[in-house]
Task: inverse folding
């Protein structure tokens, strides 16, 4: 069980996609999002753990939380 | 009863598949038990890899264009028309010019990629590309007259056609300006959306040192947000501004709207089983090539190999036998590393690429294949 209590504005389901697919899907959704939106990225690629955080660090967006407890990784990104 | 196979799109995947089906199912077609219809929105088949060479003055658009009717087996019905709606429940296609819908029993979506410059403000006005005939011609005019300044190549979005082509372009431009004694006056910068110079880490690891050796600037984590054609700047989502004198971009790609409207997948790409190429959202619908979301590159070799798999699967289905052929992710690419040298990669779902040392032989192999491609389109090679 996770104790993350964040209601996403939008969800990007990139499960099954090889890297850098999940990150590119996230970036694509951030492009069309509004400031303050929270995007939930679902990925089952281990590389996403570094890809997503490294990209978010390069931007003004914020990685609010990462849930690694389930079968998939769940990244919550708030759009700047 | 006649089994009707409709193939939507006459690019590499569609043409090779049509010819493969004609070969495998020739007797059934002759007997009237099977019909194969290839629908394309123009009369010509276009071989896009030729476009890389147009800006450097080495090829013409006509070198990559031939009438589909000359390439496709006469047993295949060719419809030059545009599909305006796919109804996967009724199994019929609405066509722009034909009064009646086209019924199918099996549908193969091979609609390829389209460019979406309009997704980035200023891109269409400020950028050039070699991912279209008109783009390659306009870029040729700019490149041939460039004697100094800053050339920026920006990969704006992935996935895009031929993932190696951005690397090829900057390697070729570097060599081309060097041979003409202009390289000291032309700065070259390559930008890529993620933290390395290519999506595939093995290819990125191979390419990065070459770029360093050849003084090609690299900007990673650069996702273009806008282009200002007047100020000649490109700005990234990450907050980096680059001034340019000539901007070459790989524009964002999409599939076609009719695919998305049919509920087959987002952005016009069909969600498929990556081994069987069956659409996830509809029965008796398949996709191949750029249109299929398999995770492998949008490349001609992929479409070619997938067409071989699908022709076997469809022939088996029609004959009531289990379809056993599956796609293993096989991809093959020659990668130009200059004007007279190239590398080569081959990989699949299980085995990563290991780029071959660049050589003149591989460069000529690539050019030789481009000439013999027409045999592939005919289903002979």
Result:
């Amino acid at each position: 069980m996770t104790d993350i209590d964040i209601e996403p504005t939008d969800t990007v389901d990139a499960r099954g996609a090889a890297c850098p697919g999940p990150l590119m899907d996230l970036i694509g959704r951030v492009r069309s999002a509004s400031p303050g939106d929270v995007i939930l990225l679902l990925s089952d690629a281990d590389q996403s753990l570094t890809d997503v955080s490294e990209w978010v660090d390069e931007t003004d967006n914020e990685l609010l939380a990462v849930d690694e407890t389930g079968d998939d990784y769940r990244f919550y990104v708030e759009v700047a | 009863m006649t089994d009707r196979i409709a193939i939507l799109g006459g690019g590499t995947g569609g043409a090779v598949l049509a010819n493969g089906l004609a070969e495998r199912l020739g007797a059934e077609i002759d007997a009237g038990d099977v019909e194969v219809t290839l629908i394309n929105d123009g009369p010509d088949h276009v071989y896009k890899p030729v476009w890389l060479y147009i800006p450097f003055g080495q090829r013409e658009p006509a070198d990559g264009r031939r009438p589909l009717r000359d390439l496709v087996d006469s047993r295949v019905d060719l419809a030059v028309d545009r599909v305006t709606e796919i109804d996967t429940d009724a199994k019929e296609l609405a066509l722009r010019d034909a009064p009646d819908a086209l019924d199918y029993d099996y549908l193969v979506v091979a609609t390829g990629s389209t460019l979406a410059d309009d997704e980035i403000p200023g891109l269409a006005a400020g950028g050039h590309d070699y991912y279209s005939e008109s783009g390659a011609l306009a870029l040729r005019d700019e490149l041939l007259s460039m004697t100094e300044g800053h050339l920026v190549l920006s990969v704006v979005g992935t996935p895009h056609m031929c993932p190696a082509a951005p690397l090829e372009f900057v390697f070729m431009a570097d060599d081309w300006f060097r041979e003409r004694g202009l390289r000291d006056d032309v700065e070259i910068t390559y930008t890529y959306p993620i933290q390395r110079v290519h999506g595939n880490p093995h290819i990125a690891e191979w390419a990065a040192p070459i770029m360093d050796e050849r003084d090609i600037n690299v900007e990673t984590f650069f996702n273009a947000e806008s282009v200002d054609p007047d100020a000649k700047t490109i700005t990234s989502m990450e907050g980096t501004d680059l001034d340019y004198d000539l901007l070459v971009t790989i524009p964002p790609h999409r599939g076609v709207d009719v695919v998305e409207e049919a509920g087959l997948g987002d952005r016009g790409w069909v969600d498929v089983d990556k081994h069987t190429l069956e659409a996830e959202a509809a029965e008796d619908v398949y996709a191949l090539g750029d249109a299929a979301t398999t995770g492998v590159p949008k490349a001609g070799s992929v479409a070619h190999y997938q067409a071989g798999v699908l022709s076997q699967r469809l022939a088996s289905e029609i004959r009531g036998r289990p379809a056993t052929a599956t796609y293993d992710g096989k991809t093959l690419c020659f990668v130009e590393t200059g004007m007279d040298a190239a590398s080569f990669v081959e990989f699949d779902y299980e085995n990563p690429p290991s780029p071959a040392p660049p050589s003149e032989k591989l460069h000529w192999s690539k050019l030789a294949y481009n000439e013999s491609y027409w045999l592939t389109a005919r289903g002979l090679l």
About this structure: The interface with chain B takes residues 16-21, 23-24, 27-28, 30-31, 51, 54-55, 58-60 of chain A (CB under 8 Å). The radius of gyration of chain A is 11 Å.
